[in-house]
Write a structure and sequence with these properties.
Elements lengths: L3 H57 L3 H14 L6 H13 L8 H14 L4 H102 L1
Helix pairs in contact: 1-2, 2-3, 3-4, 3-5
Length: 225
């Protein structure tokens, strides 16, 4: 039988062995956990990178509704992404452009406000602000163009009315000129007729005078008989 002294002498050795076994088990378990954690993180990172790449591809292919949905989903899963400013910039552009199928002015404004609030010093914020300015100017110019087109249409109608009035006036003037020409010819004919009548009257007066003289001669000859 082992004496109490031998048990006391071997006690530090048992304690050291127990500590070593406990350390090895802890290291083995933590190693498994570390590997699992790294694999999980790698899968998550790969999934996030794939989602971001898919969103970029949709944006570059001008599939704006799909790109907007993908970007929104990516930001929801990665609110601290280093690509946040770029994504918000692209979202604002897609929502702002009237030609985009994802056009949504309210969403564009809220996205821009979010970009300015979360990253005010980003160059993308300045670009979006400039895009909003251009969009506002385009709207103003479009309204001015519509007014100009309305003015042009009104002027064209007025010009058409004036042209018709001028055409009618010219037609009336031409008709009056034709009437004056006819009356002028009629007046010339009447003048010629009047001159002819005057000549005829003079001839008849002369014939009457000759007849009168001849009648007086006949009277005288008859009286002498």
């Amino acid at each position: 039988m082992e004496s109490p002294q031998s048990r006391r002498g071997s006690s530090p050795q048992r304690q050291t062995l127990c500590l070593a076994l406990r350390w090895w088990r802890t290291r083995r378990t933590s190693g498994y956990l570390s590997v699992c954690l790294l694999l999980g993180l790698g899968w998550i990172t790969t999934a996030c990178s794939t989602a971001f790449t898919d969103a970029d591809r949709a944006f570059e292919a001008k599939s704006f509704p799909q790109a907007a949905q993908a970007y929104e989903a990516y930001l929801a899963s990665n609110p601290s992404s280093p690509h946040k400013a770029k994504i918000l910039f692209r979202l604002a552009l897609m929502y702002l452009s009237p030609e985009s199928k994802a056009h949504d002015p309210e969403a564009a404004r809220s996205t821009f406000d979010r970009l300015v609030e979360e990253d005010p010093g980003s160059p993308f914020a300045s670009l979006v602000a400039y895009a909003f300015y251009l969009e506002r100017r385009v709207g103003e110019l479009s309204r001015e163009m519509e007014k100009s087109q309305e003015m042009v249409a009104t002027l064209r109608r007025d010009l058409a009315v004036a042209t018709d009035a001028q055409a009618r006036a010219e037609a009336e003037k031409q008709a009056r000129d034709e009437q004056l020409a006819v009356r002028g010819r009629q007046l010339e004919e009447l003048t010629d007729t009047l001159e002819g009548l005057r000549t005829e009257v003079q001839d008849r007066k002369q014939q009457m005078r000759h007849l009168t003289e001849a009648l007086e001669l006949l009277k005288q000859i008859d009286l002498k008989r």
